[in-house]
Design the sequence.
């Protein structure tokens, strides 16, 4: 694991592990109003995610996949596929969808709805401020 000097490390697997207690902060995105200051988490620089790819961040007990489309749109979902736990951050993305790398089930990144009956993803609100990526843990919601 490489020390980034920012209080968290990056594993060679491409997963980023965050120490929630150290990284959670108020960025002015509204967490202060909800009283859930720890729900807004910095994931570091947006440049860690190349355009057209996804990255998995381990935040507390949750694996969150953040996707950066080539058109600049950002999405965040649970990382594990509801079918058989495939790593969605390693899937193919485009046109607002991710295709699971294991069995090619598709999911809409906007709302988490899936191509297979009864399968959907938890989605999160994600934003960038001054080049820094933030996810709201309390925003997680499922389409099914
Ligand atoms: S594990 Fe994702 S489609 Fe099977």
Sequence:
């Amino acid at each position: 694991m490489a020390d980034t000097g920012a209080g968290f490390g990056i594993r060679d697997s491409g997963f980023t592990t965050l120490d929630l207690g150290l990284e959670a902060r108020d960025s002015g995105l509204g967490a202060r109003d909800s009283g859930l200051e720890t729900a807004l988490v910095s994931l570091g620089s947006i440049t860690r995610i190349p355009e057209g790819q996804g990255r998995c961040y381990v935040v507390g007990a949750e694996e969150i996949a953040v996707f950066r489309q080539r058109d600049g749109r950002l999405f965040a979902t649970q990382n594990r596929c509801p079918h058989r736990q495939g790593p969605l951050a390693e899937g193919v993305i485009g046109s607002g969808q991710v295709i699971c790398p294991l069995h090619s089930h598709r999911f809409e990144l906007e709302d988490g709805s899936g191509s297979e009956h009864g399968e959907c993803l938890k989605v999160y609100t994600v934003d960038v401020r001054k080049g820094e990526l933030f996810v709201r843990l309390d925003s997680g919601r499922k389409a099914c």
The radius of gyration is 14 Å.
